[in-house]
Amino acid sequence: MTGQVASKVRTTSQRVQHRIVLVLLATACLGCGAVRRFLIPPAVTPVSKAVTGQRRQEFADVMILGGHVHGHAGPRAVVIRDGVVTAVALSSEVTQLRSGATQLIKVAGGYVTPGLVDAHVHLEGAALLADAADLRRVGTAQQLAKAMVMTSATGGEWLWGFGLSQAAFAALQPSEVEQACPDLPVYLSRDDGHAALVSAALTKWLPPDLRDEVVAANYKLDGELARHVWRLLPAQRTERLGPLVRVVLDTLQHQGITEVHTMGESSALVTALVQLEREGRLPVRVKVYLDTARPEAGDLIDGRTKRLHTPLIDVAGIKLWLDGTLGAGTAALLQPYSDRQSAGQLRYSDGELGLRIADADRRGLQVALHAIGDAAVAQVARVLRKLVRPAQAQLVRIEHVQVVPPEVREALWGLPVECSVQPRHATEDASFAKARLGAERLTWAYPGLALVAQCPVRSGSDMPVSPADPMGDWRVMAATDPAQLGVDATRGTVEELALAALTARGTAGKDAAVRAGDTADLVVWDHDPRIATPPAKPLWVIVGGSTQQVLAR
Ligand SMILES: [Zn+2]
Q1: Which residues of the chain have pLDDT under 50?
Q2: 159 part of a folded domain
Q3: What whole-number distance in Å separates Cα of residue 256 and Cα of residue 251?
Q4: Structural domain contains residue 24
Q5: Considering its fold, how many domains does the chain have in total?
Q6: Peptide bond before 534: cis, by omega within 30 degrees of 0?
């Protein structure tokens, strides 16, 4: 959020035409051979061939002139028509494609990259946080009372607080919550979003058996119990959620993000997104993965509702949690935690997981699996190796993939999976990761971009658990030891793959070059965003050919 001064976005073209060019080449032969192919420099678009032979009436909708274009040497023009990049060429070679109606974006000294993708966010959570109490510095009942008073002014039917540290979550007693929030229905999330302290008043929305479970848990809910209660709380109204979602998406757009993949969502979010798109106020593309335990996910799987796919919104799949978190000691490990007896638990049997994947396959939905521990990642590999899937089935996404020894990484090789990693979690988890895992496991934990030697990789922030910072993620991934990617990898290979992990194709696209034929999701920066100081600013953000100038106020 740094430098996010209030700013104004002006829509200058409303033309949005969706075109899928997501080329996820699930080559079953990824490995060293594939890494070798990354070394081949991105091909420069054969300029004259791209332009000659085009009829004069095929004028450009948009032309970006004077900037450097990623993957090409020297300044190039980018030509956009019908939401697609139709040429990357010398500007002298595309003059004939200009008409009076062509929008010219002149950016001498600017730098054009593909639009950035944050492949793991929780949009509804991030949006509602605007109204939630900030509990990150709360340690006592008094501090909790103060934080909750701040939020009651804007609260709806129940109040949400977010950000309790592990220590505060462990220390605060139910009686202190009642004292701080007398008779108020409150849901107080831990900072990893995977546990919550709730008040007695909140249980009025729960069926009796679940209420008993909450009481038995002493109002401290972990993992699935916390999610179960959350799902039963009254949904946020669209008129409240929509504007909050819009604020979050605007913030992302100002970091050059043109697409987000949002995890474990509800139909309330989808409704809010549809409303924003109708009003022409949805600034980025959104892929939604519904929380598998919600009835709306069941309706989609059973074919009672149709999959929503609009120019900017794609209800792409479902999200399942195979294990918990490292901080809470609930991620499922093959060997016990270093600081406790347990090894965490898997939430599904192999058979159940196989059935869930098969259900999604029947509807053409993608499955996103939360898997932090090696036991969970190994389960995905084991199940997929046995499962017979339709030829057109989508890659299974593994979210987080944090504790994976070399042999479990190898087990992913050749499987129809892609890994969605959160590069900054390696440092953000440092305060507890060594205690939980011990020194030896830490040497291979958090592989991040190195997983590219086994499968395609995407990168995401896990916002709001961690703020969106795509170029921060790029810097972490770009620092990966090239030797981890294969014998032929160089620093340049690593840096290019790190950028590719932040684009629509992920590392399956091999590089992040802007090419003719790409969907016109682009960012025009004031300079190359890989240069950290000063941080690059997006000047224009283009989604499906629709241009939006990003103006600092
Ligand atoms: Zn997450």
Answers
A1: 1-56, 153-155
A2: yes
A3: 9
A4: yes
A5: 3
A6: yes
In the Cβ-directed half-sphere of 513, how many Cα atoms lie within 13 Å? 19
Same domain, 218 and 246: no
195/208 same-domain check: yes
Of the candidates 313, 342, 368, which is a domain's last residue?
A: 313
Give the distance (Å) from ligand 1 centre to CA of residue 473. Answer: 15
Give the type of residue at 389. R
Co-location of 138 and 207 in the same domain: yes
Q: 311: burial class by Cβ within 10 Å (0-12, 13-18, 19+)?
A: middle
Collect all residues with Cβ–Cβ distance below 8 Å to 278 and sequence separation of at least 6.
Answer: none
Q: 153 and 90 share a domain? A: no
Specify whether 48 is located in the same domain as 107: yes
pTM (2 d.p.):
0.85
The per-residue pLDDT for range 450-484, each reduced to its tens digit, is 999 999 999 999 999 899 999 999 999 999 999 99
What pLDDT, on a 0 to 100 scale, did the predictor assign at position 158? 85
Upstream peptide bond of 464 is cis (omega within 30 degrees of 0): yes
On whether residue 374 sits in a domain, the answer given is no
Q: Tell me what pLDDT residue 152 has.
A: 57
Measured in Å, residue 54 CA sits from the centre of ligand 1 at 46
Partners of 525 in beta bridges: 111, 538
CB atoms within 10 A of CB 237: 13
List pLDDT tens digits, range 388-423: 999 999 999 999 999 999 999 999 999 999 999 999
Angle at 63 between CA 58 and CA 68, to 5 degrees: 135
**Residue 435 Cα, ligand 1 centroid: separation in angstroms?**
22
Distance 189 CA to ligand 1 centre (A): 14
The range of the structural domain enclosing residue 203 comes to 126-232
Residue ranges of E strands in 212-284 = 220-222, 257-265
The rounded Å distance from CA 223 to ligand 1 centre is: 12
Q: If we measure between CA atoms, which residue out of 398, 515, 543 comes closest to residue 458?
A: 398
Listed residues 287, 313, 339: the one ending a domain: 313
3-state secondary structure 498-550: HHHCCCCCHHHHCCCCCCCCCECCEEEECCCCCCCCCCCCEEEEEECCEEEEE
User: What's the CA-to-centroid distance between 315 and ligand 1, angstroms?
Assistant: 17
